[in-house]
Design a protein that fits this description.
Length: about 130
């Protein structure tokens, strides 16, 4: 006879203040919610929010993506305050921040961590559309 193994229940830790990382590229928007130690609480992208192809890069998709990630973190970990780090030059930068605010999470600080070269590597050639 097979033995029934008892599985230990996962304990969900309550995090009232977290860190939100928004990466806005030209093709997509990624939103990651983590705690102060860097443990990921929830995440969302334009594709996981139901957008496909070129629609992932729109500001509306960035807003919905941020709302989805923050609502997931609020329901699972009862998140209340957040520090926001924005990276990239995509179209959804500001809208993603507005999406966090509309998810009723208090934003305590906003930092721009877009990497800027001090004349390092040669840039890519300009796209000809």
């Amino acid at each position: 006879m097979a033995k029934v193994l008892k599985r230990s229940k996962k304990t969900r830790h309550v995090v009232t203040e977290g860190v939100v990382y928004i990466t806005a590229t030209l093709n997509n928007t990624h939103v990651v919610v983590a705690d102060k130690d860097g443990n990921v609480l929830s995440w969302a992208t334009g594709g996981s929010s139901g957008f496909r192809g070129a629609r992932e890069a729109t500001p509306y998709a960035a807003q919905i993506t941020a709302e989805n990630a923050l609502n997931k973190a609020k329901t699972l970990h009862s998140l209340e305050k957040a520090i926001v780090y924005v990276k990239g030059i995509g179209a959804g930068r500001e809208q993603a921040i507005r999406g966090i605010a509309s998810a009723s999470v208090d934003i305590s600080a906003i930092f721009d961590i877009t990497p800027v070269p001090h004349n390092g590597c040669r840039k890519k050639k300009v796209r000809k559309l």
